[in-house]
Amino acid sequence: MELEPGIMHKAAVLIEALPYIQRFNRKIVVVKYGGSAMVDENLKKQVIQDVVLLKLVGFKPIIVHGGGKEISRWVGKVGMEPHFVGGLRVTDEPTMEIAEMVLNKVNKSLVQLVNELGVKAVGISGKDGMMLRCKKKYSGGEDIGYVGEVTEVDPQIIYDLLEKDFLPIICPTGFDEEFKTYNINADDAACAVATAMKAEKLAFLTDVEGVYRDFNDKESLLSEMTVDEAQAFVDSGTLGGGMLPKLQNCIDAIRSGVSRVHILDGRIPHCLLLEIFTDKGIGTAIFNSAEEERYYHG
Amino acid sequence: MELEPGIMHKAAVLIEALPYIQRFNRKIVVVKYGGSAMVDENLKKQVIQDVVLLKLVGFKPIIVHGGGKEISRWVGKVGMEPHFVGGLRVTDEPTMEIAEMVLNKVNKSLVQLVNELGVKAVGISGKDGMMLRCKKKYSGGEDIGYVGEVTEVDPQIIYDLLEKDFLPIICPTGFDEEFKTYNINADDAACAVATAMKAEKLAFLTDVEGVYRDFNDKESLLSEMTVDEAQAFVDSGTLGGGMLPKLQNCIDAIRSGVSRVHILDGRIPHCLLLEIFTDKGIGTAIFNSAEEERYYHG
Amino acid sequence: MELEPGIMHKAAVLIEALPYIQRFNRKIVVVKYGGSAMVDENLKKQVIQDVVLLKLVGFKPIIVHGGGKEISRWVGKVGMEPHFVGGLRVTDEPTMEIAEMVLNKVNKSLVQLVNELGVKAVGISGKDGMMLRCKKKYSGGEDIGYVGEVTEVDPQIIYDLLEKDFLPIICPTGFDEEFKTYNINADDAACAVATAMKAEKLAFLTDVEGVYRDFNDKESLLSEMTVDEAQAFVDSGTLGGGMLPKLQNCIDAIRSGVSRVHILDGRIPHCLLLEIFTDKGIGTAIFNSAEEERYYHG
Amino acid sequence: MELEPGIMHKAAVLIEALPYIQRFNRKIVVVKYGGSAMVDENLKKQVIQDVVLLKLVGFKPIIVHGGGKEISRWVGKVGMEPHFVGGLRVTDEPTMEIAEMVLNKVNKSLVQLVNELGVKAVGISGKDGMMLRCKKKYSGGEDIGYVGEVTEVDPQIIYDLLEKDFLPIICPTGFDEEFKTYNINADDAACAVATAMKAEKLAFLTDVEGVYRDFNDKESLLSEMTVDEAQAFVDSGTLGGGMLPKLQNCIDAIRSGVSRVHILDGRIPHCLLLEIFTDKGIGTAIFNSAEEERYYHG
Amino acid sequence: MELEPGIMHKAAVLIEALPYIQRFNRKIVVVKYGGSAMVDENLKKQVIQDVVLLKLVGFKPIIVHGGGKEISRWVGKVGMEPHFVGGLRVTDEPTMEIAEMVLNKVNKSLVQLVNELGVKAVGISGKDGMMLRCKKKYSGGEDIGYVGEVTEVDPQIIYDLLEKDFLPIICPTGFDEEFKTYNINADDAACAVATAMKAEKLAFLTDVEGVYRDFNDKESLLSEMTVDEAQAFVDSGTLGGGMLPKLQNCIDAIRSGVSRVHILDGRIPHCLLLEIFTDKGIGTAIFNSAEEERYYHG
Amino acid sequence: MELEPGIMHKAAVLIEALPYIQRFNRKIVVVKYGGSAMVDENLKKQVIQDVVLLKLVGFKPIIVHGGGKEISRWVGKVGMEPHFVGGLRVTDEPTMEIAEMVLNKVNKSLVQLVNELGVKAVGISGKDGMMLRCKKKYSGGEDIGYVGEVTEVDPQIIYDLLEKDFLPIICPTGFDEEFKTYNINADDAACAVATAMKAEKLAFLTDVEGVYRDFNDKESLLSEMTVDEAQAFVDSGTLGGGMLPKLQNCIDAIRSGVSRVHILDGRIPHCLLLEIFTDKGIGTAIFNSAEEERYYHG
């Protein structure tokens, strides 16, 4: 009998995955899903495949998604003008209404994609099960409307869905003391959820390769940082643009009990799998301390 | 000590509720929520209060809601024209996209209202947990787009949410074999869910007082019918307009295991409570047979 | 359709009950049942209705009953003389035998009344499941026979009955180290049970309106007291008769973890419902401190 | 080291018990407790020891007790005359009241004796948990008052107590459709309970050695009978006195699913242990058929 | 950032495995492990890796192993002569003693190899938990000693180990009515276990490529057969040597509820993975009928 | 009816066992089984009967066995020479191979004997479920091969087997960091298991009567010692031969949470039963302190 060519290589790849599967067995992995990986149809399909594979080999993945570009598109469609202050969308009541509609539509389309691969997903917002309680977030002191900062997470509904073997997909809206609806930055929501669930891993799919020591030197990509190094970097003031709040989020998450945070390049196909199932990983990893890391790999 | 006036009457009302609470203890009650009761803010609040009370005294209520008027409003908002064939909305892809957004927005607003009364709700669509599988529904042979007919219900996610003590609120979208999204008539969805859950009671909140023997004679309201009487009525051809498919739905639900179906006037405040907690009830009740009914009240 | 007159008021009363039902969901409420409410057939029926309603709307009520007058009647019936020292019945062995018989008869008649309303009750004494261990209680140093002071509560059987959804009805007898049977004052037994179960509420049905600041001034009824105020009152020495040990009992119960204690006038029909389902309540409430109370109502 | 004399014999006796312990592991054994074994203090203690031992080695024993003599004594004590028709006590309302008091007193004294040996007992009547529903039993067509015939057993409370590892002790009172209290013959109650629980064994402690082929010939004791032989014997009309209804009871119990019924001489110390832990057994055993019995001993 | 070369291919292989992982999620796969794959150290390691991977991605694998060559080696070591009749080892008492020792040694060495990869294995024989009851197997009417034919499987211990997440490794010894120890052919034991567990798959690791239509024509390898084709083949009498009883075993297993049986070439590295994770598979598959198979792949 | 002679004595013996059965209900008892009791067929049968009886009356017995003499016999059989250093067998790789085979054979023969009495046993080694992790044990600094000292016990598999009602029988082999197999002294293994399981009792079956104050004076047998007395005795240096490490083992076990350790004379038939079911017990008992012991017997 002649074997299919390349078949032995397939077996080898599967066997190589063994220790990674083992390490994350029944561990919670929160994936912040956004950016290009949410726009390009091919990348989208690959992210979903990755997450479904993680589920099937015994991880407990949770998706938290954004929807920024799609919201802007619909705001335009009904003849309104998107308006931003300090990078945050000014969210008056009509905008909030559209944002909620769009985020839930995105949510259900992700549910559908996961279902299609044979794993049952359930899409929830931060209002379901009273999960994400928040308060108004000001942008440099300015009131920008229904933009929320998470003040409390009730993770019960997530635990229940995981227990019943569903894949939870979370859309970042929440509610305040008066049960008004708020839009929450998806990075913030992912951090809040990962922290409340004491996740083993929190992975951000971004549109950059990772964190650069010097943003202008593409050779200076950092493949890993301890949380202290990351804090020093943040404090140094050299970090620009969107990376600063994201990195601070990562630091906070680790200090609150998340084991590792990853900043991945969502433009690379199957970046999640590559990060998890290869020794070198990709992107930038932030973790508690060098010692622990060694122990963790032991 | 002087007692607050009327206080003894309060006690009496509570005590009167005793046998009704007992009869429905842990029983599933599906409420199809739509029509005026969903537009008028006062009625809306009262429906939610009723459902929350049912939950708190030990029933297992499930809400299935529609969103027709709101969908039309948003279709207009983006500059499209709503189009109907035989009473069913022609649902091309852009319309379906809007319908899904609007239905999920309505869904989350109901979740919020229930949460506000201290009971945790979870809003799901028929796509979540692969709950409502459907196929294209034709209107008199005509293809009207993404309008679905339920072919299979997987009630697992509803059972799981009930077990975990959440109040499920269901938005009537589903998916077909190719994982396309469909809009399902909310009456149909409520019937399908009630049947799959073997509900004790299925209550339709409508904009009519109930079923009239003679639609032109407001005195001819029928307070109850057996399923056979209802079928004869449907077959007689004298039944007009929107009531015909609704009544056929009721009949089918009873024949598939739902114990009682109620057509209620959603314009009456607290119509749900009144139906359940008074001997005479309100609206029209359809049940299996006169004999069983006597036993049921025994 | 014309609605039954007054029907809307019924709905309003039920809706008003909502927050109270919510507040006590799955909370333990111990009812010390005695006095006139146990003699008058109408009052008796109403107390049972109240307790059954509490059970059905999700509370976990437990009845602890006395039987003093009935014991005296039977002691007389067999030609013996009741004999009291310091308000406590001198309980020699023949008296104890009769007391146990009578208390168990009362117990089973209460079980029957609850059953009749469709809720399954189980009557147990402090000997069942070795629940109430006690030692001899002296009255001013005098040996008054088999009158017991509770030294230890094993609440397992109560937890088990509640878990299995039975309504426990407890008859106040116990046993000592030598497995002799003792009569326990029903107030003491109710306190011991409420304390061991960390009850949310302990309600005494008495034959007075509540605690008066000045017993001779019927206008001076206190509607609430903190535990410190109650202790000061007890220590002041102005409190007379049967109220003194009862109030001390209330104080001890709160200091051992019971959240609120109520002294109710059992002669008012449905006094339990009125206390729980109205904002003002009736009788006298004793609780831990004014602060906590505010929080509790928040 | 010199061993205590006789110690080896002790070990041998324990080892001999092995197969019997194995055979009845987790099996339900209902003991109808009455007659002399309930009057003589020594016999009483031994019956309780036997039952406690059965419990501790893994059986699930249930006691159903009578109280006939004690009831008569108390009827007399209050100046009433006991009155019998056809061997059944005429039970008017005052008699029923006394009977219930006495039966519950007996019940609690048995609870105490079991507790004293370190096993937790719970005493219940047929009214608790709505266990024994009954209707009036006529004696040769004559109304003899509150004497009940069991019409339905709800064994839930017994299952729950067994699950929670309590030893249930049942006092034979029940209730009818109008929730009136009835006295049930303890033999009847034991049969009803054994049948409802599909007991492995039902043992009657009586004041006779067993069933005699010829009552006048003490050598004619039958050590075992099939249910058909027993029925033939009953039908032959030669069986006298109290044995006839008891034997019919045994037959009915076996036909309804009880595996074996034993008529034991309660005057023999430890008769229960002797029946269970010796090959020959004592008294008369009734079982389904000779074939099954062989299988049963295989 | 430059990605490791070949890394994308790795991701692709993992994603390809997705549907196979899904199909066998929580399904029982029995692996009969023997032949060259048990002698060659490399092959051995690869088989264990394969089984561990199956376990980690959610299958429920069970290993049943043989030990023929090693038994012969030890029989020789103590100076005895192995003796065979009709391909079956004549197993007198001293041989049985050695066989049991060797099989258990092999068993524990496999346990160790699995443990080493981080999955907890538990090795048991057919005597543990009274799992494999058997009777003497005659070889053409001749008594060949302690060679057993399985008469009854008690799979409780296997279910318990799977429930507790252990990987069961079974050594093929059993016991008869007199509790004598028997050696069971490992193929027979694997079939008996797979049948009792209603396995989804039973895979034999052999030293042949599979079943040939014509043994002399290496091109005639059959990649699949229905159970009827397999039976016809067996009945045709053209099948030679060791394949005949193995194929009959396969047929019996399928007829008793195993879904698919595979005859694999254990000399191919990772043959288990290749069979399960590739569409074409390898070796020969036997299944119930062509129709079912199509359904199965649908 | 004439009772079998001696039958009353039987009942008395069973009743005497009552308090002992009660005291050890669901308690873990580890039996180190070795010495003569493992060689003599009668003693063997009696030990197994004892352990089975303990299991049936509600204890949770665990057997840990040795196999020294049988190992030597087989080492000889294959033409090798047993070799000892400081009382410990020098265990090179071929010896270890034989030791493992023999220990597992002994293990399965004990499983069989227990099964035969109707209780399901499961035999496991310290490699199964990765139970006994160890490191090399040196004898006076000398490397004696694969002799292991337990460094960590993972008792999960034992808990699981007990939960599923199996009787665990443990063979004293373990594994080191490199997954090499080690022979563990059975006394050490029993101590490690008893400690990890927080056993109520650890009983050593030995070939001596117990501990003598003066080994040459057979009258000086100690029937009990506190752990401090035992330590003082060990430290005194007067204790000879094999008893010293055994006594040190006992002391360590008690200091790590085992309640009582017994050194029994395995040559006395049913020594286990006699120790447990008689007040005086036999052999030497070591326990924590005199005070605790009194409490324990209270």
UniProtKB/TrEMBL annotation, chains A, B, C, D, E, F:
Enzyme Commission number: 2.7.2.8
Site (Transition state stabilizer): 32, 246
Gene3D superfamilies documented for this protein: Acetylglutamate kinase-like
Highest taxon above the source species: Bacteria
Binding-site positions, substrate: 67-68, 89, 183
Keywords: Amino-acid biosynthesis, Arginine biosynthesis, ATP-binding, Cytoplasm, Kinase, Nucleotide-binding, Transferase
Signal peptide: none
Family: Belongs to the acetylglutamate kinase family. ArgB subfamily.
Stated role: Catalyzes the ATP-dependent phosphorylation of N-acetyl-L-glutamate.
HAMAP family, per the entry: ArgB
Protein name: Acetylglutamate kinase
Gene assigned in the entry: argB
